[in-house]
Design a protein that fits this description.
Blueprint (H helix, E strand, L loop, with lengths): L2 E12 L3 E12 L3 E5 L6 H8 L7 E6 L2 E2 L4 H7 E4 L11 H11 L4 H14 L15 H13 L5 E5 L7 H18 L2 E6 L2 H7 L2 E6 L2 E6 L1 H6 L10 H22 L3
Parallel strand pairs: 3-8, 3-9, 6-7, 7-8
Antiparallel strand pairs: 1-2, 1-4, 4-5, 9-10
Length: 261
C-alpha cells in the first residue's frame, strides 16, 4: 500500500521566533483514516495548511496524492478536499447555491453538476433545507454542508481539521458515521485533526500525537495503548496522550535549561 500523504522534516517558523513545526515527519497510507492529535499550538493546523498548499514550509518536503505540494500546488488542490475549523459556506447563499459554486470552482458544470449537487444534498440529509440560506442552518447542518462541499469534486484525499468541534453529541455521532462510511465504502484517505480522544480512538486506524511541532509518538491506537501496559492496568488513549505530551513538555524544559533560557 502506497502513501497518500508524506511529510518529511517540515520546519515552519512564524515571527518573531515561534517554531510551529520542528522537523515534523509523517506518512499516511492510502484508504486509511489518520488521526493527528495534540494540544492547542502543537502544530496540527500548520501541518494541514502546508499539506493543503495554504502555507509554505521554511524547509522540508511534502507530497499529497503523489504530488509535490511545492512543485505542483494546483494539482494537489484538484486532488484534495478540505474542511477547515471555520465554516466555509456563504451564510447569505442557500445550501444548493453553495454546492453549485463549489462545483464551478472545480470546473464541474451542466448536468453533471446538478446530479452531484442533488446527490450531496440527499447524502447529507440537506434536501429539505436546500433552498434556505445557510445562516438559518443549525451548527450540525452547517458542518454537514461543509463536508458535502469538500467532497463534491470527489477528491482522493480529504482533510478534516477538527470537524466536530462545537457540535452536540447527536450531530457529532452523525458526523462520525459519515466519516466511517467514506473510508469504508469509498476507500478515501482522510487526515483528521481532533481534540477528542474518543473520536480518534473510534475513527483512526493510525494516529500521531504532535507537541511543540514534533511527532512525539505514532502508531495504531492499540499499539500505543499496549506500550503503556506496564504503567497502567487498563490504559486508554487519554493515558497515551497525557503520557507523551507530558514527556514532550519535560524534554522541552530540559532543553531550555541546557541553553540557559
Amino acid at each position: 500500500m502506497s502513501a497518500a500523504i508524506e511529510a518529511t522534516e517540515l520546519v515552519k517558523t512564524y515571527p518573531p521566533e515561534v517554531r510551529a513545526l520542528d522537523r515534523l515527519s509523517l506518512s499516511v497510507q492510502e484508504g486509511t483514516i489518520f488521526g493527528l492529535l495534540g494540544p492547542n499550538g502543537a502544530g496540527k493546523s500548520t501541518t494541514v495548511r502546508i499539506l493543503t498548499t495554504l502555507s509554505r514550509p521554511d524547509s522540508g518536503s511534502a507530497r499529497v496524492a503523489g504530488l509535490d505540494v511545492l512543485a505542483d500546488p494546483v494539482g494537489v488542490r484538484r486532488a484534495i478536499g478540505v474542511v477547515g475549523q471555520k465554516h466555509g459556506a456563504d451564510p447569505e447563499a442557500t445550501g444548493r447555491e453553495n454546492l453549485v459554486l463549489q462545483g464551478e470552482f472545480h470546473a464541474i458544470t451542466g448536468r453533471e453538476l446538478r446530479e452531484r449537487v442533488a446527490q450531496s444534498l440527499e447524502r447529507f440529509g440537506l434536501c429539505d433545507a436546500a433552498e434556505r440560506q445557510v445562516k438559518t442552518y443549525s451548527g450540525g447542518m452547517q458542518r454537514r454542508l461543509d463536508v458535502a462541499m469538500g467532497l463534491l469534486h470527489r477528491p482522493r484525499v480529504l482533510f478534516l481539521d477538527e470537524p466536530t468541534t462545537g457540535l452536540d453529541p447527536e450531530a457529532r455521532a452523525e458526523m462520525w458515521q459519515e466519516i466511517e462510511r467514506l473510508a469504508a465504502e469509498e476507500r478515501m484517505t482522510i487526515l483528521l485533526t481532533t481534540h477528542y480522544l474518543e473520536e480518534a480512538n473510534r475513527l483512526a486506524s493510525q494516529l500521531a500525537i504532535v507537541d511543540r511541532g514534533r511527532v512525539v509518538v505514532a502508531g495504531t491506537p492499540e499499539r500505543l495503548k499496549s506500550d503503556l501496559q506496564a504503567e497502567a492496568i487498563n490504559p486508554t488513549l487519554d493515558d497515551v496522550y497525557l503520557h507523551h505530551t507530558g514527556r514532550a513538555l519535560r524534554t522541552a524544559n530540559a532543553e531550555l535549561k541546557e541553553v540557559g533560557a
